[in-house]
Specification:
Layout lengths: L1 H35 L7 H27 L3 H5 L3
Amino acid sequence: MRLQFLVEAAFLCVAGGAIGICLGFIAGAALGKALFGTIGLVPLWAVISAFAVPAAIGLVFGLYPAAKASKLDPIEALRYE
């Protein structure tokens, strides 16, 4: 159960990173073309880190809720307090 929460947290963060990369490419190309008349290149290390950092954040900050949720009884977790 804990692995499911960790995979979900990492996937959501990496998906957000991918959306950010796409929007960054689009905005960077538009601004570069409008201001300087050229489109700059993005280094590969920047793209890799844009995926790695959100994945690490998702794993680190998803670990505590995953550990807490894996210890709960499903009936108790769904009960309204």
